[in-house]
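Tutorial, part two.
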Amino acid sequence: MQTTMTLSSRRRGQTMVLSVVTMLMLAIMMVIGFNIAHTAHERIRIQQAADAQAYSVAVLQARAMNVNAVINRTIAALTVAQMSLHAWNTVASHEVDMLWAGFISFLGVSATEAAQCSIYQPQHCWDALEALFIAFDYMSEKQDYEDKLEGKEQDFNDAVKALYEAKKSLYDQEKELVNQIKGEINGGDILRDMLSKTAPQAQYAGGLHGTNVNNFLCTLDGPDDIGACSGSEPLVFQRARPPASERSKSMQNSANAARGLFNRLGGLGAMLGGEDFAKGAPFVITNPDKMMDIQSEGNYVATYIPGAFSSRVGDTEFDKASNNGEEAVNVGSATGIGGTVVNWRHGFGAMILGSSVFSSQGGGEHTGAVGDNHPEFKTISKIQGEATFISFNAHTSPSADNDWGQPNAYGAVTQDLRLLQKGGKGAFEVAKNGSGTINIRIGNEQRKITLVTQNTGVAVGKAKAYFHQLGADWKLPPNGFDPFWRAKLHPFKRDELRQVLNLAGDPNANVQAPVEGVE
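Running the prediction step on this input gives:
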């Protein structure tokens, strides 16, 4: 009986030891499982934070490009308004020119009638005298109209200047916007607030802030005071900025495309006869009402070469035929070369026509019958410190390899994976020294079990600001005048990922396998 109890007690002692070992192993497995779940959760958290950083930077870039596009359209519209002012001033000046042509032409009519005057044909003598009176009626009407027009010259200059000041104000807003976006991309309040909500224990890898700023600056075409473009491939597709003259031509193209010619002249008043203007054919004005009110009879015909009545932004010497390859130094308008022929009773007369109004930073001209200087138009991009604009800097050789010159945006977040969202250490960190390991003895052997990794987790993300007009089948190239910039997450290429990981401070940045199918 005593022997039996002793064996039973021994068996119960062995069961207790096995139970303790089993419970210990279960506890260790539970802690390890908790650690794996916690680590996976924190890795997901920092990956979301990295993607959010990259996407947010791309959104900032896209919104900046869209705002600049709208502002550039407004600057172009203000330039068109300046062109319109010059155009209507030219038309008003042209009426003076036509009245002057009537004066000269009727002097010719009077001369031809006088040449036929004799005692046998006294009617020609009276016609010569009447034609002379009509000539001076033209002169009197011309002087009255010229006085009215000259009284409007200062108003014209003030209006051109006000439009210029509006353009300069818009450009200042563009520069301010670029500086704000640079500050936000470079770890500003937006990114800090976002990180505090998505991964409060994580930190941004600061090495990528400068890369994102350079990506943004390299896609901007503007004066040097917006910041230099620097960096290297594959993270930054560096490019030189075109000279100011090229940016000037870009604005000129936009303005001239919006308002290049008087394609229709109906409603411009009696001096143009309410005629339609055909761009490719000579333009003829026959017997305008104002002229017939003065001469009562006969014919007054004004004929112009094709392409007359233009309003352009052009080179230093304004020319009605200015093409879109010239620098936008001046704004002006011209009627083109024409001539007036008057037939009246038995005589005729003729006079050359042509008026123009243009302005520049150096002055300007008002040719034709009215003369004045117009110094209030200043260049769009030629003078340092004067009004200009910020546009998209297209890559010199756009292709899929450089993402068509569109900016990349990167995110990188690091975090000690043992940290909890609200701070402190987890209950699974059983070691007092915070090492995340425990020591156990199995028989005569000492074992160490790591429950919580001490490695810092690194997560990276990539996004892109890209240009796409919905429904246009990608036919419209990226530009700085259409607000179709958008943002999206984007896959990495292998070399690109390796460099981003290096910048993020990952010592194990060794990407061997293809990334997103890219070898």
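Residues 49-417+463-519 form one domain. In part three we will examine how such features are distributed along the chain.
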